[in-house]
Amino acid sequence: MKIAVVGTGYVGLVTGTCFAETGNQVTCVDIDVNKIEKLKNGVITIYEPGLDVLFDRNIKEDRLHFTTNLAEGIKDAEVIFLALPTPPVKMGQPI
Length: 95
Ligand SMILES: NC(=O)c1ccc[n+]([C@@H]2O[C@H](COP(=O)([O-])OP(=O)(O)OC[C@H]3O[C@@H](n4cnc5c(N)ncnc54)[C@H](O)[C@@H]3O)[C@@H](O)[C@H]2O)c1
Description:
- By secondary structure, this protein is of the alpha/beta class.
- The protein is built from four helices and four strands; from the N terminus they run βαβααβαβ.
- The chain is globular and about 45 Å long.
- Helix 1 crosses helix 3 (51-60).
- 37% of the residues lie in helices and 19% in strands.
- The chain starts with a strand and ends in a 13-residue tail after the last strand.
- A four-stranded parallel β-sheet has the order 3-2-1-4.
- The chain has a single domain (2-82), classed as NAD(P)-binding Rossmann-like Domain (Rossmann fold, 3-Layer(aba) Sandwich), CATH 3.40.50.720.
- The protein has helices spanning 10-21, 33-40, 51-60, 70-74; strands spanning 2-6, 25-29, 64-67, 79-82.
């Protein structure tokens, strides 16, 4: 299955990597150019025990991709997961 994950932070990167590990083609999208550049170069951007092993394997097996281009990232995706920051309300507390 082709899956897109929009937002590649703690939730998005773990989710995307695990979906790739279970055999899906995954594209992770983020607006942070530096983060996506690192990920494209095989550099993991968060610490999560064991994630590096899955990350490396799925990059090598070409199931895990990264982009800053939303249109390209979600093209042909059967499922799109949003792992974006929760917008704060006026006083800053979560909705
Ligand atoms: N981390 C947790 O343990 C946890 C637990 C429960 C719920 N959540 C919720 O999950 C969501 C994601 O949390 P997180 O910890 O992964 O946050 P995070 O800040 O690590 O990741 C969010 C990512 O979204 C990216 N982003 C922001 N705007 C974007 C846009 N318009 N297009 C594409 N990418 C964009 C940011 O650059 C960042 O990389 C939040 O709503 C949070 O409240 C997180």
